[in-house]
Amino acid sequence: MNARVAVVGGHGKTGRAVSAALTARGACPVPLGRADWGSLAGALSGCRTAYVIAPNMHPDEAAYVADVVAAATAAGVRRLVLHSVASPYAPAMPHHVGKARAEDVVRRSGLAWTILQPGAYVQNLLSDGPTLRLAYRADAPFGFADLVDLGEVAATVLLEQGHEGATYELASFAATAADVAAAVGTRVEVVTPEEWARTEGAGLDPRVREWLLAMFGYYERHGLPVGTRPMRTLLGRPPTTLDAALARR
User: What is the CA radius of gyration of the chain?
Assistant: First the structure.
């Protein structure tokens, strides 16, 4: 029988990438979403491994992950892989700190665990529009993660032994937003955080807006560099390049 692997938060773009990679490896992904939350332990039944993706910008990610851990333990799940973020303990970015706290929950869970820390997805910048609007400098350094690469790595650590107790920071290639825009053929427009808050950020929950503004400020000062060696090693092949990611659109 194919291994059943729960993907908590499995209906978003990350969950779909992980599920596709699991299917390609002959496993049976079980995507779980909000509809399953009231009876999560029952939904996890029959799965010995779970991949956990918290909702984006969750107000209390540690509590969310603690609830998943409790349900997973009750359901007999033995291994848990947490989807975190590169540089989780960056005090200037509240949502990163939330992921650092969630990592601590997993490390103390009593389950066999692995933590993945991907950089920003390059797919988030691959817009078909004529302009890429940024609220931080276009030449800030990043280690971008490709979603397909991330899905393949997730499948590897979920299905293979030897990754228990490991934390992997993941990027496919180093680039700037300006590099991505140039490859796509779009124009970069850098706006002030105040302008972003009046436009794209106007309709957001105030907490989410403030957290994103904090993230933009961090990117302006530091970018988010991430090394590519762990991704290469776990894939067993060269990671996806920017040109290859573009060709896949």
Answer: 18
> Which range marks the domain in which residue 137 is found?
4-247
CATH number reported for the structural domain that contains residue 85 in this entry: 3.40.50.720
pLDDT in tens, the chain (249 residues): 479 999 999 999 999 999 999 999 999 999 999 888 889 999 999 999 999 999 999 999 999 999 999 999 999 999 999 999 999 999 999 999 999 999 999 999 999 999 999 999 999 998 778 899 999 999 999 999 999 999 999 999 999 999 999 999 999 999 999 999 999 999 999 999 999 999 999 999 999 999 999 999 999 999 999 999 999 999 999 999 999 999 988
Contact 170, 232 (CB under 8 A): no
Alpha helices in 76-176 (DSSP H): 94-107, 147-159
User: Bridge partners of 131?
Assistant: 187
Pairing type for strands 142-144 and 173-175 reads antiparallel
Domain total for the chain? 1
Tell me the two tokens of residue 82: 């947490």
Query: Among 95, 10, 94, 3, which Cα is nearest to 52's?
Result: 10
